[in-house]
Amino acid sequence: MAFSDEVAWVTGSSTGIGRAVAVALAGQGRRVVVHYNASEDEARGVVEEIEASGGEASLVGGDVSDTGEVGRMVREIEERFGRLDVLINNAGSLIERRSLSEMTDDLWDRVMDVNLKSVYLVSRAVLPIMRRQGGGRIVNMTSIAARNGGGPGSVAYATAKGGVSTLTRAMAKELVSENILVNGVAPGVITTPFHDRFTPPDVRENLKNAIPMGREGTPEETAEVVAFLASPAADYLVGEIIEVNGGQLMD
Predict the structure, then answer these.
(1) Catalytic residue (one of 36, 120, 157, 236)
(2) Is residue 246 domain-resident?
(3) pTM of the predicted model, to two decimals?
(4) Please, are residues 58 and 80 in contact by the beta-carbon 8 Å criterion?
(5) Which residues span the domain enclosing 233?
(6) 236 is catalytic
(7) Hey, is 136 helix, strand or coil?
(8) Which ranges of 82-200 would DSSP assign to H, the alpha helix?
């Protein structure tokens, strides 16, 4: 298959968009590293799904906001495969909705760590591998919240995702000369466990009604955009943030 020599690591790939991205990249022939922090059973299910379709996948677990854990996971991947061609920084969470006046320092730091610091830590850790190979692809998952400030109680999450968008462009400028191409994807309202957990039904209905296409997106629709950015078809795209939101925000 076209990408059978390539290895892709998708952080936060046990459910939702991450799961769909892992399956899509495996469907293109890549060997995929499925990552989890707490959801090991779900992540094993993704590995089994990929293998049942004839693909190759392995599992790695750890906290992507912890420097030591990130280093360990990268070493495991390098020891297992000897290479890493594609990194998808997908891990993230709202953790809980909290207004600015009710925000605590601890919650703020946790949201920043899992959504923004993790992208910095994981990207930095894989650079030596990609440099030795002569290049690679990094796709950072940001959010519509980076542009519109997010929904009620998501001030920390929106701020973190805004940071991811800016970090994506900064990384792209710094790494393009080394053939490491960095882009981002900003999903809108997607049918995932994220909204099942964090968005009340009435708020979710209002969000859906604000989408010109009149429906939520699917994880698979988002995953196809990520897979495109990981492919040679995107060889001349650098530092772009592709919006996948059904027309809710337009440039």
Answers:
(1) 157
(2) no
(3) 0.96
(4) yes
(5) 7-189+221-240
(6) no
(7) strand
(8) 105-112, 118-133, 145-148, 155-175, 193-198
